[in-house]
Amino acid sequence: MTDQNLAIIVLAAGQGTRMKSATPKVLHHLAGVPIVTHVLATARELDPAVVLTVVRHERDKVAEVVTAHLPSAVIIDQDETPGTGRAVEQAIDGLPADFGGEVLVLNGDVPLLDAETLRELVAHHRESGAAATVLSSVVPDPSGYGRIVRRADGGLDRIVEHKDATAAQRAIDEINAGVYVFGAGALRDQLANLSIANAQGEKYLTEVIELLRRAGSDVAAVPVGEPWKAEGINDRAQLAEAGARLNALIVRGWQLNGVTVQDPATTWIDLTVTLDNDVTILPGTQLKGATTVAKDAVIGPDTTLVDCEVGAGATVKRTDGTLAVIGAGASVGPFSYLRPGTVLSENGKIGTFVETKNAHIGLGSKVPHLSYVGDTTIGEGVNIGAGAITANYDDIDKHRTEIGDDVHTGAHNVFVAPVRIGDGAKIGAGAVIRKDVPAGALALSVAPQRNIEGWVEKNRPGTAAAEVAERARSAQKADDGSQRQDG
Ligand code: UD1
Ligand code: CA
């Protein structure tokens, strides 16, 4: 049920300078999903009255991602005054003037916090009657974070940013997680009093804590149970750490759901992937985007699938696939490259060193070895010989190759598209097929073989080849002679 007394503000206006990136920090991906989307998903789970998201740097790009994930989110544009305090000051104007509930502020770059932790924080805040409750975390390396400065009695005194901290304060290992619950009225009152008298010349949201305490209100800092949940992402090393942490959780989640994952350390699964039970994932496998895998399929080792659909019982070994459909019971790999638009029907095969693109391969049909199949339709029960190439591109346009049912092609065929092979047709080895082949025909395009007897002995006299050839030919002659005598 919607908590009408809860408003959530997500801060996502910063550039993320330490990422050194053209992409805004909150749009970098974690488990296949933009960082800010993780925060929005958690916010959504709390079912608040409203989610306000503050944007500025690359405003349109960030707003688009926010709205795509949470269409009801209110987008707040931060002006040129920098700082998390200014961001919240502007966001709060987006709330109804009579909103008297709690405001939960979330940093858009702290993606691993779960809804349960936040629910507990809000409940704690409401029970305690404090004006502000901050989530803190005790971490092995607090550098870069705001430090939680406590009074002698253990109560929260204030938060000091790393850049403003004295050496003694920098030694504090309890940090501000960037998550706060405020009473709406108390927050409104103090935001108007923020200064910019700090090392960065910004309006710090953290200063609200000190202002509230000085005004005689209660403020509290509550340590999070598991410190990694509060880790912020400021640079790419932290991005990788958070990514590994989240991946470990995702892999474990699937294991507990009945998926065999042989080597969690080398298995990467996006948050957006769906797996049935009794799927087996072998080492070195990455499953990305909207990939789905049905029961009893075996994926890997060393396989990357992006936005692929794998049917029940299929095997996919040492393969790279994007936007491909692999039917139930089909077999792919090792060393296959499935490009977008590949549809391999049930019990079909795409084998070793085969590349496919926009290719529909019918029921039980096989492309087993060393082939390129692009812009092609293959019927049912077809076997494509080793080394087949569809020449689909004539320098100007792409053309289709259409192959009927129960066709057997020869080794090393080239199909110069557009071209059609009728049902049941056969094709000789090495043929270059430029014209349609009617149903049931045998197509040959290679000139009949001519053997010029004695050519090597005549043209390469004295070479090793000539010597062995001469020996072989006289042995053959003697053999022929004795056979004639016997007969
Ligand atoms: C902030 C906290 C710090 C805390 C840390 C936790 C302040 C002053 N400091 O520091 O105490 O330990 O988070 O991760 O709040 N943002 C805006 N508008 C701005 C600036 C930032 O919306 O003008 C957003 C950013 O996009 C980001 C979040 O606020 O999502 C935090 O900003 P960042 O610059 O990363 O703050 P930290 O220095 O990490
Ligand atoms: Ca940060």
Task: Please give a structural write-up.
The protein has 487 residues and is α/β, with parallel strands linked by helices. It has two domains: 3-230, Spore Coat Polysaccharide Biosynthesis Protein SpsA, Chain A (Alpha-Beta Complex), CATH 3.90.550; 259-443, UDP N-Acetylglucosamine Acyltransferase, domain 1. It is built from ten helices and 35 strands. Helix 2 links the parallel strand 4 and strand 5. The structure holds uridine-diphosphate-N-acetylglucosamine and calcium ion. Calcium ion (CA) binds at residues 107, 109, 232, 234. Uridine-diphosphate-N-acetylglucosamine binds next to helix 3 and strand 10.
Index terms:
Spore Coat Polysaccharide Biosynthesis Protein SpsA, Chain A, alpha/beta, 19-stranded parallel β-sheet, 29% strand, UDP N-Acetylglucosamine Acyltransferase, domain 1, binds uridine-diphosphate-N-acetylglucosamine, 487 residues, 2 domains, 10 helices, binds calcium ion
Topology:
Elements: E1 3-11, E2 29-30, E3 33-34, H1 35-45, E4 48-55, H2 59-69, E5 74-77, H3 84-92, E6 102-107, H4 115-128, E7 132-138, E8 147-150, E9 156-160, H5 167-170, E10 174-183, H6 184-191, H7 207-214, E11 219-223, H8 236-256, E12 260-261, E13 268-269, E14 274-275, E15 280-281, E16 286-288, E17 292-293, E18 298-299, E19 304-306, E20 309-310, E21 315-316, E22 319-322, E23 325-326, E24 331-332, E25 336-338, E26 343-344, E27 349-361, E28 366-378, E29 389-391, E30 401-403, E31 414-416, E32 419-421, E33 426-427, E34 432-433, E35 442-443, H9 455-459, H10 464-486
Parallel strand pairs: 1-4, 1-6, 4-5, 7-11, 12-15, 13-16, 14-17, 15-18, 16-19, 17-20, 18-21, 19-22, 20-23, 21-24, 22-25, 23-26, 24-27, 25-27, 26-27, 27-28, 28-30, 29-31, 30-32, 31-34, 33-35
Antiparallel strand pairs: 2-3, 6-10, 7-10, 8-9
Uridine-diphosphate-N-acetylglucosamine binds next to helix 3 and strand 10.
